[in-house]
Amino acid sequence: MSEPMPEPTSRFDRQPLWRHMLGDRLRALRHRRGETLTETAKRAGVSTQYLSEIERGAKEPSSEVIAAVATALEVTLLDLTIAVADGLRESQAAPVHAPHGPSMFALAA
C-alpha cells in the first residue's frame, strides 16, 4: 500500500511544473485554431499519442519537439516560452494563505 503524499510545506512545493504549463498552453493554442490532435501532430511530425501526452503534461518533450509543435501551431518558440513563463509567474502571484487556528499558535511558540 502506498503512503499518502506529504502536504506542501512551502510555496516552492506548490509550484506548477513547466511541462504542465507548456501542455496547457499548447492545448489552448490548438483549440484556438480549431484543430484536432491528429492535425497538429501530423504537421509537427509527432504521433497523436505523443502530442496528447505533451498536452497532458505526462511527457517532458525535447526542445526540438517543442519547436516543431510551436511551428505547427504557427507560434514562435520565443512567444510560446514567454506565454508559459507568464503563466508560471501568474500562478506564483496567487496569495498563499497563512496558517490559522491552533496551528498558528504552535508556529508562534
Distance between the termini: 36 Å
- How many domains would you count in the coordinates? 1
**CATH architecture descriptor:** Orthogonal Bundle
What's the CATH class, please?
Answer: Mainly Alpha
Helix/strand order, N-terminal first:
HHHHHH
Question: pLDDT under 50 segments (min length 5)?
Answer: 103-109
Strand count, sense and closure of the main sheet? none
Principal-axes geometry comes out as globular
The CATH topology:
434 Repressor (Amino-terminal Domain)
**Beta fraction:** under 5%
How many β-strand stretches? 0
What number is the mean pLDDT?
84
How many whole angstroms does the radius of gyration measure?
18 Å
CATH superfamily assignment?
lambda repressor-like DNA-binding domains
Structural class: mainly alpha
